[in-house]
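Q: Entry one of two.
A:
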Amino acid sequence: MKKRISIITGSRADYGLLKQLIKGISGDSSLSLRLLVTGMHLSREFGFTYKEIEKDGFKINKKINIVLKSDTSEDISKSMAYAIEGFAKEFKRVKPDIIVVLGDRFEIFSAVIAAHIAKIPIAHIHGGELTEGAFDDAFRHSITKMSHLHFTSTQEYRKRVIQLGEDPKRVFNVGAIGLDNLEKMNLLPKKTLERLLNFRFNQRNLLVTFHPVTLENDTSYEQFNNLLNALKELKDTSIIFTKANADTNGRIINSLIDGYVRQNTDKTIVFRSLGRLRYLSALRYVDAVVGNSSSGIIEAPSFKIGTVNIGDRQKGRIKARSIIDCKPTKESIQRAIKRIYSSKFQEGLFSIKNPYRGRDTVKKILKILKEYNLKTILKKNFYDLDFKYGRDLC
């Protein structure tokens, strides 16, 4: 009998990371895939990105609409309630052997709550990480405690998942799944990318992706406006913006981007979603990622480019030497961008090693999902760290 696996995706970001795993499961004769799509994928405002999934040839088995009316705290809580209800109905009707989730967003957390109550095993990718400036941090650790198999992106994160009480035999350091995907993608040539984006690369080029710092009160406008004021003073620089996600106050950032691009049509362009191929292809030709997205931490170092990491959203993550942390002020951002273009910094990029780099990440995850015995996986013992006797976490 085939092992039934449900994969849940709620955004352009996690789908891009999960794509090769989805492909691997769907092509395995011993596995049965059910693809559940929710969150920003189903929103007109965020580009109806479920269409990208269908364009890639994958069948969407269920769309679970969580009604993203606005980005206020109240409406996000309501969306979580809709998500829990929708996934509860799905899991009652089609009970998979295990669900696979990635990351820390609120819609994923909601799906995991429903699965946990329905007594469905959960496999979690990218647990153990820290983003101390976002409420996603608590969601991620909560997902860890409700999950039964864990696939971390570094050994340090593996140790942190164990520190949360998870059995080391269930925690696997496989590397970042997004980096594994890079080897399987034919990135676009520069001229092709320019044609698809309707954008001409300049002498200098930046990719800006900035999201709200959700554990701060009403800082989105000020912080992003400081970034725009820093960008205004750059010369011979073209900028690709990607819009913020459906976090609290994300629409404030998106409105500021739209206004800036309207005033600077000769050197800027904005996208609700670039899609995985175009986004990664753009990383080949820009000088740096500027903002506070995890892609600047995890993926940008593999392209030997710099990252200007603004503020506290990604505070606590393991970082390569190519990442420059700065405060969310105009002056600090300007200093960081100036450092990116310094000859000393540029020379150092050639020797950068990405700490998230694994090997055959998708194959490793797929093998464990196929072979792990799920019959007795639901009951978990809390794994206590015995510091007195120096229990080895490795």
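Q: Entry two of two.
A:
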Amino acid sequence: MKEFSKIILKHSKDEVVRRFHPWIFSGAIKAITGNPQDGDVVEIYSDNQQYLATGHYQTGSIAVKIFSYCQVVPDYSFWKSKIQAAYDLRKKIGLVDRDQTNVYRLIFTEGDGMPGLIVDIYGQTAVLQSHSMGMHNIKNHICNAIMEIYGDKIQAIFDKSADTMQKMTGIKHFRSISFWQQN
């Protein structure tokens, strides 16, 4: 398994993670091994070096947004399985292929285990918005997985993350809208 930077929590700050809270606040951190940059994958450990979770690192009061409570390799298959689970849930509760409407939220950030990401479906178009550098960095995986899961039901994906990412990161080079289209 790949070696990631480690976030070691202060004594007794691991309880909130054990209760599946999806964020690590900067004040809970005792030490960081490695040199994680915004958006990098990190592993969370208790004060006594017990693995707790995996997430995306970011500078700020919310230092880590957790996406797994098991040690994982967050590759394309991992992210596709999360999107597939979100799709399956929406299908099970009757949001997919409805006669009354063709609009619904596919990914709802922490609720779907993908903190910092929103994906809405509008007919044959998916619109995604990243609210973290970690999710922004994997948007190609996200778009490819959506197109693979939906097949010809999705013809285009718009990424409208530019304004959000500029506000969150201060970086000005984000394009206003990115577009993927089904071949």
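A: Comment on entry two: The CA atoms of residues 26 and 60 lie 7 Å apart. The chain has a mean pLDDT of 91.
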